[in-house]
User: What shape does this take?
Amino acid sequence: MDLSSLEIDGFALVPSFLDSAAASELRAMYDDDTRFRKRIVMQRHAFGRGEYKYFANPLPPAIAGMRERLYDALVPVANAWASRLRLDVAFPPSHREFVERCFACDQRRPTPLLLKYVEGDYNCLHQDLYGPVAFPLQATVYLSRPGDEFGGGEVVLSENRPRAQTRVHVLQPQQGDLLVLPSHAVPRNGTRGTYRAQFKHGVGTVRWGTRYVLGIVFHEAQ
Assistant: This one.
């Protein structure tokens, strides 16, 4: 898994992380409400338009395993970023230990989620922070085929640097692609040393069809 663009762009798009069969199996879970703890209708909260569901514990084995493997791959980056930003935090080597840290701060609700967008739906720019304990990276896996099953719905990342105008990155991942993106801040090198660039992410309006996405957040919610 090539994550080298994290250092340059602050995010990394990994093609063909899942095959089409695995993507179809994951999105088929959306209609099984026994797997989820909560359903959110975005327009009720001014989050955008569309809906998503948070998985309940125990997580489906495929998602729990994916979460653990991705954490293992990303924790060296997370610790390097924390060091560069001079944060008083060190992330433990295993996701199990990190979840125990979340539990100690009363963050006990699982955060992996499935999102569903239909024609006219969108997601406003936001950050997925659920309490004082937060992992600086998260991931999304794209489960539908752009141009075949839906149109529009581009991924939008905004990068806000101090004393500078906001930069926007627009992506259209393919089915099975993985996007690793910041949960909040990314270290950047400036003339006076390292500074924080704040990232938010969202989704452009879906023009037609249905779009499914799996979200993997590593910290739990209060």
